[in-house]
Amino acid sequence: MQKxxxxxxxxxxxxxxxxxxxxxxxxSAQHEEDTTHIDAPADTLHSEHASGHEEANIGDxxxxxxxxxHQWHITDAIxxxxxxxxxxxxxGLDFFSSGNxxxxxxxxxxxxxxxxxxxxxxxxxxxxxxxLSITKNVLMLLINASILLIVLISVAKSYTSRAGKAPKGLxxxxxxxxxxxxxxxxxxxxxxxxxxxxxxxxxxxxxxxxGNLLGLLPGxxxxxxxxxxxxxxxxITFFITNLSGNKSYWGHIFWxxxxxxxxxxxxxxxxxxxxxxxxxxxxxxxxxxITAGHIVLLALICLTFIFQSWVVGFGSxxxxxxxxxxxxxxAGIQAYVFTLFSALYIGMAVAEHGHDDHH
Length: 359
What we know:
- The chain is mainly alpha-helical.
- It has two domains: 2-22 and 136-350, no CATH class; 33-67 and 70-131, no CATH class.
- The protein has ten helices and eleven strands.
- The protein has helices spanning 2-29, 42-45, 58-66, 136-161, 170-190, 194-214, 227-244, 247-254, 261-307, 310-350; strands at 46-48, 54-56, 71-73, 79-81, 83-88, 92-97, 102-103, 106-107, 113-116, 119-122, 130-131.
- Strand 3 and strand 4 form a beta hairpin.
- The longest helix is centred in the C-terminal third of the chain and has 47 residues, at 261-307.
- It is globular, with a radius of gyration of 24 Å.
- The model is unreliable at 33-55 and 355-359 (pLDDT under 50).
């Protein structure tokens, strides 16, 4: 019964994750310039060689995969248009397909809107509209959340129907991971109060793990390499940590015990800065690790097209295979590290400390 309740709490937290991350992705999309669109000048997208062959700008190819987009480019021939949902005071709420912004791969205006970079503007006024579209990263978020729902619901049903029996099927795969997170990450770092925070940390671990693994699939979106996503995850940990902080935790920040008064004045701003650098470090660590891995893989693949040599292509394929195996390991390590530090910060906030006051 306890495991079923744990799974249900994790499902609720997953819903909160999805809503929060959707808002963050859409907010960042309002300010993100995607240089991979075709409406950029032609000479910036291609370089002409003396032999007459065109060579794609490798930087644009890489950025197209790393950044968010209103279309999902699988290959040059396979492009999936995504739903556009926009609102403006002048035109109200509008729905249409992002494919309407392109005609024979050339950018066009549609219904009084134009796509500039990764922003949707009104043609008449040039004013940016409220963009609630289902972009590539938003769709990856929904896919990731759906897979997690299927897995967690399936495991919860297995616990109910096979109570007292040995794990079987998907349950036998997920249960060791749950026990690892519980016994090796959450419990040692939080202590006796760990059960209160276990559903959140389990959801956090599986969300990041599945997002990292899905991002390694060919043509997939870079969900956990989106800094808005990592920022929201870090902020959730930040708020849980500080809202759970007890008297001892805040006492160490504002009036560090056992320290002479002059030093306390110096330590206070350092401690306050430390409160805000923790979510910053969580944000940057996951964002950089995942994005850097994608950039390295794509750069190695592009070497084949730069040198146009089968020797380079073979060597590139070998390196990409080896690095892909490392990236599978990194996917698990980054989920572990993010969850570990989140548990550590929460544990520091809820721990009880005894100090002598005679110093």
